[in-house]
Design a protein that fits this description.
The protein is α/β, with parallel strands linked by helices and 283 residues long. It contains 12 helices and 7 strands. The two termini are 40 Å apart.
Protein backbone atom coordinates (compact mmCIF):
# COMPACT_ATOMS: atom_id res chain seq x y z
CA UNK A 1 0.00 0.00 0.00
CA UNK A 2 1.37 3.41 -0.99
CA UNK A 3 1.88 5.94 1.80
CA UNK A 4 2.27 9.72 1.68
CA UNK A 5 5.94 9.23 2.54
CA UNK A 6 6.36 7.16 -0.63
CA UNK A 7 5.23 10.18 -2.67
CA UNK A 8 8.31 12.17 -1.64
CA UNK A 9 6.74 14.63 0.81
CA UNK A 10 8.82 16.27 3.54
CA UNK A 11 8.63 15.38 7.23
CA UNK A 12 6.91 18.71 7.97
CA UNK A 13 4.13 17.88 5.55
CA UNK A 14 3.90 14.27 6.73
CA UNK A 15 3.46 15.49 10.30
CA UNK A 16 0.65 17.83 9.22
CA UNK A 17 -1.07 14.97 7.37
CA UNK A 18 -0.73 12.70 10.39
CA UNK A 19 -2.35 15.30 12.63
CA UNK A 20 -5.29 15.46 10.22
CA UNK A 21 -5.59 11.68 10.31
CA UNK A 22 -4.58 11.17 6.67
CA UNK A 23 -2.75 7.87 6.28
CA UNK A 24 -2.80 6.84 2.63
CA UNK A 25 -3.23 8.90 -0.55
CA UNK A 26 -6.27 8.61 -2.76
CA UNK A 27 -5.73 7.35 -6.33
CA UNK A 28 -5.66 10.86 -7.83
CA UNK A 29 -3.22 12.02 -5.13
CA UNK A 30 -0.97 9.03 -5.73
CA UNK A 31 -0.79 9.83 -9.44
CA UNK A 32 -0.45 13.62 -9.36
CA UNK A 33 1.62 14.55 -6.29
CA UNK A 34 4.89 12.89 -7.46
CA UNK A 35 4.48 14.53 -10.89
CA UNK A 36 4.03 17.96 -9.34
CA UNK A 37 6.86 17.52 -6.85
CA UNK A 38 9.13 16.57 -9.73
CA UNK A 39 8.04 19.79 -11.42
CA UNK A 40 8.80 18.84 -15.02
CA UNK A 41 5.22 18.84 -16.33
CA UNK A 42 1.97 20.73 -15.98
CA UNK A 43 -1.01 18.58 -15.03
CA UNK A 44 -4.68 18.23 -15.93
CA UNK A 45 -6.31 16.07 -13.28
CA UNK A 46 -9.66 14.48 -14.04
CA UNK A 47 -11.48 13.17 -10.98
CA UNK A 48 -14.87 13.56 -9.40
CA UNK A 49 -15.55 15.74 -6.38
CA UNK A 50 -14.62 14.16 -3.05
CA UNK A 51 -11.48 12.37 -4.26
CA UNK A 52 -8.99 14.61 -2.47
CA UNK A 53 -8.19 16.96 -5.34
CA UNK A 54 -7.32 19.87 -3.05
CA UNK A 55 -4.38 18.03 -1.52
CA UNK A 56 -3.16 17.13 -5.03
CA UNK A 57 -2.18 20.72 -5.73
CA UNK A 58 -1.96 22.09 -2.17
CA UNK A 59 0.79 19.75 -0.95
CA UNK A 60 3.26 20.39 -3.83
CA UNK A 61 2.59 24.14 -3.56
CA UNK A 62 3.23 24.11 0.19
CA UNK A 63 6.43 22.14 -0.34
CA UNK A 64 7.86 24.44 -3.00
CA UNK A 65 7.03 28.05 -2.15
CA UNK A 66 8.75 30.28 0.40
CA UNK A 67 7.26 32.01 3.44
CA UNK A 68 10.14 34.52 3.31
CA UNK A 69 8.96 35.81 -0.06
CA UNK A 70 5.98 38.11 0.59
CA UNK A 71 4.80 38.08 -3.04
CA UNK A 72 1.88 35.99 -4.27
CA UNK A 73 3.45 32.72 -5.43
CA UNK A 74 0.32 30.65 -6.06
CA UNK A 75 -3.06 31.65 -7.47
CA UNK A 76 -5.92 29.15 -7.19
CA UNK A 77 -9.17 29.94 -8.99
CA UNK A 78 -12.44 28.45 -7.75
CA UNK A 79 -15.97 28.86 -9.18
CA UNK A 80 -17.70 29.93 -5.94
CA UNK A 81 -16.93 31.83 -2.75
CA UNK A 82 -17.84 28.75 -0.72
CA UNK A 83 -15.26 26.61 -2.52
CA UNK A 84 -12.64 29.37 -2.27
CA UNK A 85 -13.12 29.46 1.50
CA UNK A 86 -13.09 25.68 1.75
CA UNK A 87 -9.88 25.35 -0.26
CA UNK A 88 -8.10 28.12 1.66
CA UNK A 89 -8.98 26.52 5.00
CA UNK A 90 -7.79 23.13 3.76
CA UNK A 91 -4.45 24.60 2.66
CA UNK A 92 -4.07 26.28 6.06
CA UNK A 93 -4.57 22.94 7.79
CA UNK A 94 -2.13 21.11 5.48
CA UNK A 95 0.82 23.47 5.91
CA UNK A 96 1.57 22.39 9.48
CA UNK A 97 4.00 24.69 11.29
CA UNK A 98 4.97 26.64 8.19
CA UNK A 99 4.26 30.38 8.17
CA UNK A 100 2.62 30.67 4.77
CA UNK A 101 -0.17 33.23 4.47
CA UNK A 102 -3.26 32.04 2.60
CA UNK A 103 -5.98 34.48 1.55
CA UNK A 104 -9.44 33.73 0.17
CA UNK A 105 -10.77 36.54 -2.02
CA UNK A 106 -14.34 36.64 -3.29
CA UNK A 107 -17.22 39.02 -3.87
CA UNK A 108 -19.51 39.90 -0.99
CA UNK A 109 -16.63 40.29 1.47
CA UNK A 110 -14.75 43.50 2.28
CA UNK A 111 -12.42 44.43 -0.57
CA UNK A 112 -10.55 46.77 1.78
CA UNK A 113 -9.73 43.88 4.13
CA UNK A 114 -8.52 41.80 1.19
CA UNK A 115 -6.34 44.65 -0.10
CA UNK A 116 -4.85 45.21 3.36
CA UNK A 117 -4.04 41.49 3.64
CA UNK A 118 -2.29 41.59 0.26
CA UNK A 119 -0.26 44.59 1.39
CA UNK A 120 0.95 42.68 4.46
CA UNK A 121 2.13 39.82 2.28
CA UNK A 122 0.32 36.72 1.04
CA UNK A 123 1.94 33.67 -0.55
CA UNK A 124 -1.21 31.81 -1.67
CA UNK A 125 -4.37 33.42 -3.03
CA UNK A 126 -7.55 31.38 -3.48
CA UNK A 127 -10.24 33.34 -5.25
CA UNK A 128 -13.20 33.55 -7.56
CA UNK A 129 -12.36 34.86 -11.05
CA UNK A 130 -14.52 37.98 -10.70
CA UNK A 131 -12.91 39.28 -7.52
CA UNK A 132 -9.42 38.33 -8.73
CA UNK A 133 -10.05 40.41 -11.86
CA UNK A 134 -11.32 43.34 -9.78
CA UNK A 135 -8.18 43.40 -7.65
CA UNK A 136 -5.92 43.04 -10.68
CA UNK A 137 -7.61 45.96 -12.46
CA UNK A 138 -7.15 48.11 -9.35
CA UNK A 139 -3.46 47.26 -9.31
CA UNK A 140 -3.80 45.53 -5.94
CA UNK A 141 -3.01 41.97 -7.01
CA UNK A 142 0.25 41.26 -8.82
CA UNK A 143 0.55 37.80 -10.35
CA UNK A 144 3.91 38.28 -12.04
CA UNK A 145 5.71 36.29 -9.32
CA UNK A 146 3.30 33.35 -9.43
CA UNK A 147 4.98 29.96 -9.74
CA UNK A 148 1.72 27.95 -9.50
CA UNK A 149 -1.61 28.68 -11.22
CA UNK A 150 -4.47 26.29 -10.43
CA UNK A 151 -7.98 25.99 -11.82
CA UNK A 152 -10.07 24.02 -9.33
CA UNK A 153 -13.33 22.62 -10.74
CA UNK A 154 -12.33 24.07 -14.10
CA UNK A 155 -15.40 22.69 -15.88
CA UNK A 156 -17.72 24.48 -13.44
CA UNK A 157 -15.97 27.80 -14.03
CA UNK A 158 -16.37 27.38 -17.78
CA UNK A 159 -20.06 26.53 -17.33
CA UNK A 160 -20.48 29.72 -15.30
CA UNK A 161 -19.04 31.85 -18.11
CA UNK A 162 -15.65 32.65 -16.61
CA UNK A 163 -13.60 31.60 -19.64
CA UNK A 164 -12.56 35.14 -20.63
CA UNK A 165 -11.64 36.05 -17.04
CA UNK A 166 -9.59 32.86 -16.72
CA UNK A 167 -7.67 33.61 -19.91
CA UNK A 168 -7.00 37.19 -18.79
CA UNK A 169 -5.80 36.08 -15.35
CA UNK A 170 -3.51 33.38 -16.75
CA UNK A 171 -2.10 35.84 -19.29
CA UNK A 172 -0.80 38.00 -16.42
CA UNK A 173 1.28 35.18 -14.97
CA UNK A 174 4.78 34.04 -15.92
CA UNK A 175 5.26 31.45 -18.67
CA UNK A 176 7.68 29.67 -16.32
CA UNK A 177 4.98 28.80 -13.78
CA UNK A 178 3.39 25.40 -13.22
CA UNK A 179 -0.22 25.32 -14.42
CA UNK A 180 -2.66 22.79 -12.97
CA UNK A 181 -6.26 22.13 -13.96
CA UNK A 182 -8.58 19.90 -11.93
CA UNK A 183 -11.97 18.97 -13.30
CA UNK A 184 -14.66 16.31 -13.02
CA UNK A 185 -15.19 16.38 -16.79
CA UNK A 186 -12.97 17.28 -19.73
CA UNK A 187 -14.75 19.71 -22.09
CA UNK A 188 -12.91 20.80 -25.24
CA UNK A 189 -12.54 24.36 -23.94
CA UNK A 190 -10.30 23.14 -21.10
CA UNK A 191 -7.95 21.52 -23.61
CA UNK A 192 -7.94 24.72 -25.70
CA UNK A 193 -6.91 26.76 -22.66
CA UNK A 194 -4.30 24.14 -21.79
CA UNK A 195 -2.70 24.38 -25.23
CA UNK A 196 -2.50 28.16 -24.88
CA UNK A 197 -1.24 28.50 -21.32
CA UNK A 198 0.37 25.19 -20.38
CA UNK A 199 3.84 23.98 -21.20
CA UNK A 200 4.41 20.22 -21.53
CA UNK A 201 1.40 18.74 -19.73
CA UNK A 202 0.06 15.36 -18.75
CA UNK A 203 -3.57 14.33 -18.28
CA UNK A 204 -4.08 12.26 -15.14
CA UNK A 205 -7.43 10.52 -14.81
CA UNK A 206 -9.05 8.22 -12.29
CA UNK A 207 -12.17 6.27 -13.08
CA UNK A 208 -15.45 7.51 -11.64
CA UNK A 209 -17.00 5.04 -9.25
CA UNK A 210 -20.41 6.70 -9.61
CA UNK A 211 -20.97 6.05 -5.94
CA UNK A 212 -23.78 7.86 -4.16
CA UNK A 213 -24.11 8.49 -0.47
CA UNK A 214 -25.41 5.42 1.31
CA UNK A 215 -28.62 6.36 3.12
CA UNK A 216 -30.25 4.09 5.67
CA UNK A 217 -33.69 4.97 4.31
CA UNK A 218 -35.08 6.94 1.41
CA UNK A 219 -38.72 7.90 1.87
CA UNK A 220 -41.29 9.77 -0.17
CA UNK A 221 -44.46 11.25 1.33
CA UNK A 222 -47.40 12.43 -0.79
CA UNK A 223 -48.76 15.29 1.33
CA UNK A 224 -51.23 18.05 0.58
CA UNK A 225 -49.65 21.54 0.56
CA UNK A 226 -51.64 22.68 3.60
CA UNK A 227 -50.35 19.74 5.67
CA UNK A 228 -46.65 19.98 4.76
CA UNK A 229 -45.49 22.09 7.72
CA UNK A 230 -47.18 19.79 10.21
CA UNK A 231 -45.61 16.79 8.47
CA UNK A 232 -42.20 18.45 8.59
CA UNK A 233 -42.63 19.07 12.33
CA UNK A 234 -43.46 15.40 12.88
CA UNK A 235 -40.45 14.20 10.88
CA UNK A 236 -38.14 16.46 12.88
CA UNK A 237 -39.70 15.43 16.20
CA UNK A 238 -39.41 11.69 15.65
CA UNK A 239 -35.79 11.91 14.44
CA UNK A 240 -33.03 11.85 17.06
CA UNK A 241 -30.75 14.91 16.79
CA UNK A 242 -32.30 15.99 13.50
CA UNK A 243 -29.95 17.85 11.14
CA UNK A 244 -31.20 18.46 7.65
CA UNK A 245 -31.72 20.68 4.63
CA UNK A 246 -35.20 21.62 3.44
CA UNK A 247 -35.27 22.60 -0.24
CA UNK A 248 -37.93 25.11 -1.29
CA UNK A 249 -39.16 26.16 -4.72
CA UNK A 250 -38.58 29.91 -4.28
CA UNK A 251 -36.69 32.32 -2.02
CA UNK A 252 -40.01 33.55 -0.61
CA UNK A 253 -41.01 30.01 0.34
CA UNK A 254 -37.54 29.55 1.84
CA UNK A 255 -38.11 32.55 4.14
CA UNK A 256 -41.68 31.49 4.99
CA UNK A 257 -40.69 27.95 5.98
CA UNK A 258 -37.77 29.26 8.04
CA UNK A 259 -40.03 31.75 9.85
CA UNK A 260 -42.62 29.06 10.62
CA UNK A 261 -39.95 26.70 11.97
CA UNK A 262 -38.43 29.39 14.19
CA UNK A 263 -41.93 30.38 15.41
CA UNK A 264 -42.42 26.75 16.45
CA UNK A 265 -39.14 26.81 18.45
CA UNK A 266 -37.02 24.91 15.94
CA UNK A 267 -33.50 26.14 15.16
CA UNK A 268 -33.51 27.10 11.49
CA UNK A 269 -31.88 29.51 9.05
CA UNK A 270 -32.65 30.45 5.46
CA UNK A 271 -29.97 30.13 2.80
CA UNK A 272 -30.47 31.66 -0.66
CA UNK A 273 -29.10 34.27 -3.04
CA UNK A 274 -30.39 37.25 -1.04
CA UNK A 275 -28.48 36.20 2.09
CA UNK A 276 -25.31 38.25 2.60
CA UNK A 277 -21.90 36.61 2.64
CA UNK A 278 -21.48 37.43 6.34
CA UNK A 279 -24.74 35.69 7.19
CA UNK A 280 -23.83 32.68 5.03
CA UNK A 281 -20.58 32.19 6.91
CA UNK A 282 -22.41 32.33 10.26
CA UNK A 283 -24.86 29.67 9.05
Amino acid sequence: MTTFKDLGLSDKTLNALEKKGFETPTPIQELTIPLLLEGTKDVIGKAQTGTGKTACFALPIIENISAKNKEVQAIILAPTRELALQVSKEIESLQGDRKLHVLAIYGGASMRDQINALKRGVQIVVGTPGRVMDLMKRGRLDLSYVSYAVLDEADEMLNMGFVDDIKEILSKTSRDKHTLFFSATMPKEILKIAKTFMNDYEIVSVKSTNETTNLTKQMYYNIKPKDRMEALHRIIDITDEFHGIVFCKTRLMDDEVTHKLISSNYEAAALHGDISQGQREKI
